[in-house]
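check these tokens.
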Amino acid sequence: MSNDAKGNPSSSSSGRKLAPDLARGFMLLLIALAHANQNLLNLEATTLNRMIVLLRQIFVDGRAFPVFFLLFGYGMVQLLHRQEVKGHDWPFIRKLFLRRGWWLLLLGFAHAVSLYDITIGLYGMATVIFFWFLRLSDKKLIWIAAATLLLAAVLGSEITRGEYEWGHVTAAPEIAASAGIVDTILTRSFNWALYSVILLHQVIPAMALGIWAGRKKLLDHPELHQSLLLRTAAVGLALSTFGGIPFALLSSLYWNSPSEAATAIAGSLHTVTGYAGGIGWAALIGFIAGSPRIVRSKLTRAVAALGQRSLTFYIFQSIVFFIVFTEGIGGLGAIGNQLSSDIVAWLTWIVSIIIAEFMQRANYAGPAEQLLRQLTYQIPQNR
């Protein structure tokens, strides 16, 4: 065990900080729950389906993605500090971030065209466009977070994550099956570019707050910030829960015939409080990671191993869902319900933990992370 790991119980034997990896690993479960049901083709409004949608809207939809982008900003600060320790100046670091961002964009494009998911590309686009946030003062970061959160609130009345369309829907795999390969690639490429631009504003508030938190090292040494983390978790998750109820009632058809104004307010409230929930989840996991008993837990280490390979297993989720739900392969999309999609999400996450633990024991990095690292550092290493 390294000296850092000995002196800091919240670090792993590799010197990585436990809390960010633990948060990424756990949030992959919420991401799976949020995404699996999007592959269903027939959303029948049964009592069971409506109840599951109600709970998912309150606790999952729009609450998981802010955690990842908060950790994304946090990770940018960690990468910056590692490069500064090595003696690299800002022009070198700027080029490093740009290379990483462009390669993430390319990887995101490939993921969107093949498996119809735009999230990875958002990481790349945010890196390329907003890496200069790292040079801003704390005060400017907070102002940017506040301003873009207001923008997200305004647009949230029309762009709300996790909306449900009851009845028969046409999912991406079904569209692809009825179109040619060229048409499918062109359509998905256009949608990837369009929605990446439209949704980019949702990245900024969490990313800016993540950079601020990274500077304070709140998750590097969570045992030193237990009181702050606990209060933040309690307030954030409470706001998220109560703020998610109106839109959840609307989505699950328990609130019928709302006015246009009520629908818009519910959507905005759901979006804004989703960021509070994201911050709350990150703070709660940080608080948990600050406990020596939790740090020594085998399950904790396994979930952290998953989080250390979050990019690989995010892609793994997409592949599993494609196989399980697509007509002509698993076919669950045509016959499954909300409960079956949640079961698939849970099983996918559990299998991911098991695989990640074996990879950790074999000292094997995630293939996607390893590829991205090689591409990012290729030019400096050849000098």
User: Anything to note?
Assistant: Residues 11-377 form one domain. The longest strand covers residues 42-43.
